[in-house]
Amino acid sequence: MTSPIHINDTRGGTERFRAALKSISEDHSPANVQSAVCSLTEDECRTLQSLVLDIENFIYDRVEAHEKSSD
C-alpha cells in the first residue's frame, strides 16, 4: 500500500525540512529527533507538527480497521 504522505510534496518542504525528516526516519532515537527538530525554523516546526498529527490520525484509522476486521 502506498502512503498518501510524500516528503517532497509536503507544504513547506524545504531542503532542511526534508533532511530533518530523512534523519528522523533513519534514526528515531530521542537525541537525534531533538537535534533534527531543533534545526528547523518555526514554520518548518509547524509543518512537522501538522504532518505528525496527520500520521497519528492515519495510524489510528488503520488500527481501528484492523480491530474491526479481527472481530
Topology summary:
Layout: H1 15-26, H2 30-38, H3 42-70
Helix pairs in contact: 1-2
Report on the structure:
The protein has 71 residues and is an all-alpha fold. It is 70% helix and 0% strand. It is built from three helices and no strands. It has helices spanning 15-26, 30-38, 42-70. Helix 1 packs antiparallel against helix 2 (30-38). The longest helix has 29 residues, at 42-70. The radius of gyration is 14 Å and the shape is elongated. The mean pLDDT is 87.
Descriptive terms for the model:
single chain; 71 residues; mainly alpha; 3 helices
List low-pLDDT spans.
none
Count the E strands. Answer: 0
Distance between the termini: 23 Å
Mean pLDDT comes to: 87
Query: Rounded to an integer, what's the Rg over CA atoms?
Result: 14 Å
- List the helices and strands in order: HHH
| Helix vs. strand class | mainly alpha
Percent in strands? under 5%
- Work out the helix count: 3
Give the overall shape: elongated
How would a crystallographer describe the biggest sheet? none
Percent of residues in helical segments? Answer: over 70%
